[in-house]
Amino acid sequence: MMQRLASAIILLFLGGFIFLMGMLASEQGWLDEPMRILLAKMQVQTDIREPLDAHIHVETREEGHAFPGALLIGSHYLVDPAIVLVNAAGEILHRWNVEKSTATQAVLDLHPPLHKALEDQFYGIDDAMLMPDGSVIFSQSLRELNNLRAQRIARIDKNSKLMWEIPGLFHHDMILAEDGLIYATGSEARDTLPVVATQSDPKALYLGGVVHILTPEGEYRQTLHIEEAFANSPYAHWLNTFRVDLGDIQAVALRDEVKLYDPIHLNSVDYITAEQAALHDGLAEGDLLLSMRGPSMIAILRPSENRILWAARGPWRHQHYVRMQADGSILIYDNEGDSRFDLRDSQSIRLDIQPRVIRYDMASGQSSVAIRTPEDVDMASYWRGYYKELANGDWLMSSSNRGRVLQLDPSGNIVWQLALGPLAQKGEVLYNQKLVSVRYVDAPDIPAAFLSADRP
Asked: Are 153 and 170 contacting, i.e. CB atoms less than 8 angstroms apart?
């Protein structure tokens, strides 16, 4: 009897000890990452298969002040739709369903095997453009891989029927330029890179930046190699300013112990018009404005010579989405340049990092803050990001990590917001509530069929 009682006491003690250690391990972050991911997925399993448009919530803080157009939104998705067009009232004007694609099987073959069926993989719409006929051109990637994950660029009609596709590492940004061509950022997995990695190693691959040029009909024209463009210019030594100590953002483990290094991480391209070029000495129509996240650098490339004409670094960090304006200035989505100490927790020092838009003058090198998000709203956006200055002086700004779009007046006050989840939610959101791509579509550019009362 006494022996059974002692055994029971020991078992209770061990059970309590294991429970307490488990709680402590969770609190202190001792659980390994696979277990943490498993627990997280168990917690959100009921939400994870809801379609993108089921998560959209909007709030108008100033009536009659919201933008007149619509937002074209692409997100992570397990189920359709993958792309939606939504107006300021939160109404879905149109949906596009995008088939999951492994168009670049060679990319998958470089990675360790994926232990989930295709229908259980998260895919993402890296960028999307609405065309006048209601079709969309988009780039697509397998989001559960790091960096080397892009699959294709494609066009589907308004009924989501595939019109054409080009397999390849298309990601982040694309533009339909004044010359009628599409310029899209992308990557290539390479054995060597100019300047920074001139000798091959069987255990190393490098992600080189490229700009693909193609027609809206899906005809491939040309690929521009960014590292070669630097090597062909007086800015070759600027390539050496990258860092690879940022975890799996710039150093990715592949199959067979191969490491992939992503030193520049090209993430934006803009076409310089004749009017913009006339405002700057040495520029010409068709030059391309580029953004590289790795070295926090912007540059201008001349495609006809595949040569960098100009480069700059400034008060921005890990920026995305650069666009030259009609006055010749450059607007930059500054992801992490606006850092402030958060000392609310006396036990640790944290940084409060909010995105902002920097306006940069090429000629003088001077910069200013065009708009920043309010300090009392969590808009941290480690990756991606979008802005749009509206005709009335207001701004749209997105946070990819927080799944949120704000409309701000010129003083930075919120007049409208959209969230892919509860509006009161703080911090990281569910994976399928993160924004991958956002584009503003002006009212005259919305196809009439999407505005009719009997729209599909």
From this structure: yes
Q: Verify that 322 and 227 share a domain, yes or no.
A: no
Task: Report yes or no: 367 and 357 within 8 Å, Cβ to Cβ.
Answer: no
Identity of residue 240: N
Pairwise CA distance, residues 154 & 221, whole Å = 15
Kindly state whether residues 67 and 202 are assigned to the same domain: no
DSSP at 242: -
What order of strands is seen across the sheet that includes strand 320-324?
320-324, 330-342, 350-360, 367-372
Max Cα separation, the chain?
96
Pairing mode of beta strands 414-420, 56-60: antiparallel
Is the separation of the CB atoms in 135 and 80 below 8 Å?
A: no
Residue 275 falls within a domain, yes or no?
A: no
What whole-number distance in Å separates Cα of residue 437 and Cα of residue 405?
11
> 449 is in which domain, residue-wise?
54-95+314-456
Domain end point (choices 228, 263, 298): 263
Q: What is the DSSP letter of 3?
A: H
The predicted-structure confidence for 266-299, as pLDDT tens digits, reads as follows 999 999 999 999 999 999 999 999 999 999 999 9
Query: What is the Cα–Cα distance from 359 to 368, expressed in whole angstroms?
Result: 5
Which of 223, 243, 263 is a domain's end point? 263
Strands (E), 18-65: 56-60
Instruction: Examine residue 49 and state whether it is found in any structural domain, yes or no.
Output: no
User: Strands 414-420, 404-408: parallel, antiparallel or unpaired by DSSP?
Assistant: antiparallel
What value does the mean pLDDT of the chain take? 88
Distances (CA, A) of 223 to 41, 188, 309, 331: 39, 10, 18, 25
pLDDT digits (tens, 9 = 90+) for 185-234: 999 999 999 999 999 999 999 999 999 999 999 999 999 999 999 999 99
Can you give the length of the chain in residues?
A: 456
What are residue 33's phi and psi, to 5 degrees? -65, -40
Can you give the pLDDT at residue 246? 67
pLDDT score of 325: 98
Domain identity same for 233 and 109? yes
Please tell me the distance from the alpha carbon of residue 238 to that of residue 298, in angstroms, as a whole number: 11
Q: Can you say how many angstroms the Cα of residue 410 is from the centroid of all Cα atoms in its chain?
A: 25
Helix (H) or strand (E) holding 252: strand 251-253
